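Quarterly update from the structural biology core.
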Amino acid sequence: MSTSYDALWWAKVQSAGVQQVDPATPPVAGMIRAPEPDGSSVWLVPAMPAGAGHGVLEELGTPPVAVEQPNETARVLAICVACCWRERSEPAWPGTTATLAQIKAVYAGLRGRAEQSSDLTLIVGGLRRLNGTGWLLWNEKAGEVRLGPRVIGWGPAQLVGLREVCRVLPEPPAAVLVPRAPEPPPADPLPDASVASVASGGELDE
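Predicted structure, tokenized:
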């Protein structure tokens, strides 16, 4: 594959973050492919150099956890990992879907107190920041979250540490997912010939 093709995709990632593309999209040099569980698409995620510092990550267009409220954001990410990465002997990606109710429960348990109204503002702020940087996939309307494609780059050493973090966090309650309404079938792009005839002033055949 030409270097111009690779450069185009790197430019897209640097300007807009990790990219979700058709599975038939050819590989890009230096990027990991994170397939969606249903195979409908893949994410292009830059492969991070071992020990890459903040400056290198910024240059590659993949900054670490958002600098804004870093402690709170890191806390929300850890809780989401605990809720979404249930099979911890397996890779973290793609994980499972967790709910806002689960995250709130673990957050309150981590704080050692009952849930408070202010928790929601802090949690949603962290979810939005992590969604914007590709660490999470946050569906705000449904109140559901998944691990983002960037977690596919976590190596064995990072996963060992994350397993320990998950072990000490409060156990999340069972997820209660909202059933999805079936998608309506797409409209027929070509109207029936008889309807088109009537619309144009013609008559239906007897």
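Confidence is low (pLDDT under 50) at residues 51-63, 193-200.
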